[in-house]
Amino acid sequence: MKSYHDIASDGGSNVLEQVSVQRKHLEERLADVRHIVAVASGKGGVGKSTVTACLASALNRKGYAAGVLDADLNGPSMAHMMGVQDHIPYSRDDAMTPALSHGRIPIMSMDLFLPPGSTPVIWQAPTQRGAYTWRSMVEMSALRELLADTHWGTLDIMLVDLAPGADKLQNLADLLPNISGTLIVTTPTAVAQMVVGRSITMASDVAQVPVIGLVENMSGNTCRRCGHEEALFTGNPAAHKLAQRHDIAYLGRIPFDARLAYCLDEGISFLKDYPESTAGKAILSIADALHAWLDL
Amino acid sequence: MALHEWHGPSDGTMSIVYSCPNCGRQIAMLTNQAETQIVRSLGVKIGGRSDVAAPMESLRSNLAMQREGVETTRPSTSQTKCPFTGMVNEAFARDALTWSDPALARLESIPAFVRPMVRTNVEDYAREQGYVEITELVMDEVKAHLEM
Question: Which end of chain A has less Cβ packing within 10 Å, N or C?
Answer without folding.
Answer: N
